[in-house]
Structure formats: C-alpha cells, structure tokens
Amino acid sequence: MGAFPGVRAEQQAVLEMWFPGATLVADHSWGLVERSVLQLRHDGRDVIVKAGGPDDHHMEREIRAHHEFVAPLAELALAPHLLHAHADLRLLATTFLPGRLIEGTPAEHDPETYRQAGRALSLLHRQSSRSGEDYEARADARASAWLRRDHRIAADVVDRLRAELARPAAPRPLVPTHGDWQPRNWLVDDGRLAVIDFGRADWRPAATDLGRLATQQFRGRPDLERAFLDGYGTDPREPSAWHRDRVREAIGTAVWAHLVGDEDFEQQGHRMIADVLGSARSGGDS
C-alpha cells in the first residue's frame, strides 16, 4: 500500500491496519478544506475513507453522527455504513455507495428526487428529540462570532445583522440534523436516492435542514418544494424562527466561503443576506 494523497503518516499507518493492501480508486477531495476523501479498493470491494487535518472539527461531527444516528438510514441503503473510525486522528471509513451525485444532473430538477429527499430527512429527524433550551443563544453566539472574522460584508449590513440576532428567540426542540441537506450530498442510483457527508451533522431544530434548499433549488421551483414537503410529511418552518435560521445561515455562508476562497459560494451568501434583510424590511418571514 503506497501513501495516499492528503493522508498523514499516522493516519496511513491506521489505514494499513484497517485495509491492508488497499489501492486508490479515486480522489474525491474538494480541495477547499483540510480533508482527503478517497475511494479505496480492498478485498474486492470499494470503501470511502475520510482523513481530516488536526483542526478539522467536521470529522469529529461526522464520526459522532455515524455512532449516534446514521445507522437507521444506512440499514435502508439511504446512507453509508460505518466501518471504522478513529476520532483522535480524524479518520473515518465507510461503505461505498454506488451512484452519481445529483447536483448538476437532470435529477436535480426532478420533483421525485425531492420527494425521496424529504422522506429520508423525515426518517433522520424522527429518530429522537431533545430539549433545545440553550440552542438559540448558542446559535446566535456562533453567528456573531462569524461576523468578527474576516469577511466582505458591508459595515452597515453587519449592523443590521447584529440587530436581527439581538431579538429574543423562543426555544425549540432539537433533532438529529444533517446540516448540509442538498443535491451535492445526494446520490442517485437507478432512480433511488441516498445521502452522504455528515460532516455538519448535529442536534438542531428540524427547520435548519431546509436552509440550503430554500436558498438554492426551491427558488422559482415551488413544485420541488411541494414535492419535498410531501415526502417529509409537514413543514417544520415556523415563520419567526425560520427567519432567524436564515439570518444565521446567510452569515455563516458568506463568511466561511470568503475564508476558504470559494467566491461563488460567497456570492450566494451575500445574496442570502440581501434576501433575508429584504424580508425583514418588508415584514415577511418566508
């Protein structure tokens, strides 16, 4: 087994114990963050290995998610099965799911895709619930912390965003969430959807998993939104709380994308900010 790209020596040593003689099939790494995503072949089957850098806290989340709430989806072939994990080394191995990413394919515009995605998300959310007594304050604190980092949000806009975060927020129950529920993390194989990449998974209000879709795929496509909610079974977005979620999501998107140099995603974040502040000015929360 040769050294794999982006894998530290101590991670390589563990991989040699997990998958002796494995060979590299494909490198699926994004290149924007300190993480390698590799498809390996071992004993005639393909596996996915994720190797994070020392500061890659998303790997901690993904490992925790697989231990806590991914397994029921994996049993239905809606997510990969956990094979091995080493939290201290930010190292994870799962089964390989066949199929192609939905983003950029005709399936991204097919209502049936969203009906299946809604159904899968409902299964994830319905597993458990816990009190969210301190969630809103913590989420506001994180959003405020983003605004203290380097970004290209205008000063007057920052003031308006801070004012939005200063408003009182009622507590909501928390459920297992994916954190990046959108077509770039969905696979389709013979018309059947599956979900990957639980690196942003955490306990959050259910509505937060609709944030990316509302900003992207649902814009101008109410049929996709209807199909998704039909699969999900209800609409988890309470208007005032949903507005707050959109404010936080917009801030995080614009700042994070700027920090990692993803200009297209950064522009999406600025559009999200404009949309949510425009909604606040008009008195609407949708």
TrEMBL record:
Pfam families: APH. Gene3D superfamilies: 3.90.1200.10. Coiled coil: none annotated. Residues 36-241 form the Aminoglycoside phosphotransferase domain. InterPro entries: Aminoglycoside_PTrfase, Kinase-like_dom_sf. Signal peptide: none annotated. This is Aminoglycoside phosphotransferase domain-containing protein.
